[in-house]
Amino acid sequence: MPLALEQLWTGNPDSCHSFLLEIATRSVGTYPVATWFTIMLPYKYCWFYITFMVFLHYDLVFAQFPRQCTTQQALLSGECCPGLFPLQSPDPNDQCGSTLGRGQCAPITIDSHPHGPQYQLDGQDDREQWPIRYFNRACRCNGRFYGYNCGSCKPGWVGDNCDQQSVAVRRNILDLNQEERRRFIEAMDLAKNTIHPDFVVATRHFAEIIDPVQNTTNFENISIYDFFVWTHYYSVSKTFLGQGQGSAGGIDFSHEGPAFITWHRYHLIQLERDIQALLQNPSFALPYWNFAIGGNQCDICTDDLMGARSNFDSTLLSPNSVFSQWRVVCENVEDYESLGTICNNTRGSPIRRNPAGNTARPMVQRLPEPEDVALCLEVGLFDTPPFFSNSSESFRNTVEGHPSGQYDPIVRSLHNLAHLFLNGTGGQTHISPNDPMFVLLHTFTDAVFDEWLRRHNVDSSQYPLENAPIGHNRQYNMVPFWPPVTNNEMFVSAPENLGYAYEVQWPSQTLSITEMITIAVVSALVLVAIIFAGTSCIVSRRRRKNEAFQPLLAESYPRYAEDREENTQAV
Ligand SMILES: O=C1C=c2cc(C(=O)O)[nH]c2=CC1=O
Ligand SMILES: [Cu+2]
């Protein structure tokens, strides 16, 4: 719901106070002290207080773009280059921290290579050549500075000057102790209930982003976790064809192509960094769920982790889990598609999860096996033409969940199978991140990718430059992230380049059938050779032994008998 700005213009202290209360309620996690002050504030001082709040957090009142860039003026200028004033720079004209040498406003580079044949509606979709429909200039940060206004540091660097290294260690959630589990769940819940301090989301397509009648723009505040859900929804939503004409598929900026890996990698980094900033703890790390354990049990669906099954409704979460209180965003996909709207911050139903409960699809009632991971890690090529869900001998397609590249609408493995196993909110692409299992499922998928990079020692030339589905080419800016970030930038080893590392015990490598046959044949040959050598040895030793008891010359035998006779007589 948009903030009731009209309340302010009445000049009535009551209205002013309720306006402030609305802001405070939405930002209770981000600005707890401000919330407390608001509640305690005598009405007559409301206007002094609002001036103070705007000065402190001037970005709070104005609005997946930085709040400062969602004014009509910014949209019409095509420039999104916010400055660091007043919190970090004393200069009100600062753009991108240029007054402190952190960055400058520069043209955005876009990918101009051809895309694959899946999408044929070029010119229709706001997300093409992202983010050029909205902005053509953004902050370009120097050195290790980073962010929409160059006010933060590149992943892996911290400190006022971004000169201290920091690596967050992502661990198996089952290896966390009780206190670590509690802290992780608390952090997730805080992210679910805290308004994103920097970003807002568009609730209309570009053609309607400015409302000329109301003289406003169509953006909304959203919580940090719901922002994470919204970005996934926006990346997979269909192309709107116009009022009354519905929407068209053939487009997915984050699945069924090479960007599946790089897109979800940045998606997780964004959430991890947002939570690090929220907690003011740069070592906060998202854990992972090793879903490749086979069987039909969800080992982390317990109340101290991701929530047990409810006793009252087997498709809901137990009331003892905080996640049973979470409400889903972006669930009215049919409405968005027919009305030409975009998901907003409205929350609806609770999370549904019914692991292994899909009797209609027995294939998805079992989790992937450890061998599936071991085999996947052995695939030598990152991706293969047509860089889609039917690519064969492709590491990306294998880990995404189309085994051996034989596209089959029924068969799923690894990542896709883990989603479908959840059998509820987490199994439906438009809303899946609403279930926090999504985070842990994807950190594990990302861990497999990082291990694959390490084992195969690849460079970015393995990532397709062109002819991948739209949004999936190497130099494409991933939709809808801001500041613009290419697939290429995520195709690097995490510990050295992205500020996080995984602690994982990988299943031992399995042998291929050819390798097993070769080993069996060689072993059999070696065994035969040993037996032959051993037998020859025994035979020749026996022969030598026998020879030792035989007379050296045939005629000496009577002489030997004579000698024995002589010796006997002597005795
Ligand atoms: O959220 C997702 C849900 C998915 C379901 C499938 C499938 O293979 O049917 N794949 C999915 C990917 C997701 O990201
Ligand atoms: Cu997924």
Automatic annotation (TrEMBL):
Entry keyword annotation includes Metal-binding: yes
Major localization listed first in the record, in broad terms: membrane
InterPro entries found in the cross-reference section: Di-copper_centre_dom_sf, Tyrosinase/Hemocyanin, Tyrosinase_Cu-bd
Cofactor: Zn(2+); Cu(2+)
Coiled coil: none
Domain Tyrosinase copper-binding: from-to ranges: 255-272, 435-446
Gene Ontology biological process terms in this record: melanin biosynthetic process; melanocyte differentiation; melanosome organization
Catalysed reaction, written as an equation: 2 5,6-dihydroxyindole-2-carboxylate + O2 = 2 indole-5,6-quinone-2-carboxylate + 2 H2O
Topology relative to the membrane: Single-pass type I membrane protein
Record bears the keyword Glycoprotein: yes
Any one annotated GO CC term: melanosome membrane
Localisation: Melanosome membrane
GO molecular function: metal ion binding; monooxygenase activity
Listed transmembrane segments: 516-539
Keywords: Copper, Disulfide bond, Glycoprotein, Melanin biosynthesis, Membrane, Metal-binding, Monooxygenase, Oxidoreductase, Signal, Transmembrane, Transmembrane helix, Zinc
Record Pfam families: Tyrosinase
Recorded metabolic or biological pathway in which this protein acts: Pigment biosynthesis; melanin biosynthesis
Family: Belongs to the tyrosinase family.
Listed name of the protein: 5,6-dihydroxyindole-2-carboxylic acid oxidase
